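Researcher: We're teaching a course module on how sequence relates to structure. For the next exercise, students receive a sequence and then see the predicted structure as tokens, so they can try to spot secondary structure elements on their own. Here is the exercise chain.
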Amino acid sequence: MNDNITTTPPSLKPEQKKTFREEALETFRFVLIALAIVVPVRMFVAQPFFVSGASMDPTFADHQYLIVDEISYRFTEPARGEVVIFKYPQNPSQYFIKRIIGLPGETVLITGAGQVTIKSKDAKITTTLNEPYVAFPKSDNIERTLGANEYFVMGDNRAGSFDSRLWGPLERDLIVGKALVRLFPFSTAELLPGQFKQTQ
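Model: And here is the predicted structure for the students to work with:
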């Protein structure tokens, strides 16, 4: 007696072709999910920014492409030496990129060939800044005491920057974020480009 059992596999149903409506619905769902992820990131976390002009030379060049971190300053305050993107106080539809020099309550003094000195709120501590990022200095004679929510910002190209020396302090609520990534050109790609921590 033959004990072998032979079974015939069930017939496989041919894959049904999706209708135009089903494909359209699937595409629509994909787009909705993508927008739900991308839009909040674009609006509240990070956004692209093109450097325009030479005010931050040699740290940043014209047309470099940056990604701006918009979320960190929701939890921490801007620090001296950080490169920030902000709305220009006299025309908030324009965005500027500069470096934070003076913090709220401090007094900023610029003398001689552009040497920057910072006095603390109580004027007990005086710090002369080390600024290796400045390649194009400019002679100035400025003294400015900052308010509780004010920052003093300057471009690294001191000889060619339109900044707090001319239009005054920057209000905290105008700061959009800090430079997180330099993406383009690829030869200059960098994380936290231009950031410099001042040592007291």
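Model: If you want an answer key for the exercise: DSSP finds two helices and twelve strands in the chain. Confidence is low (pLDDT under 50) at residues 1-9, 34-45.
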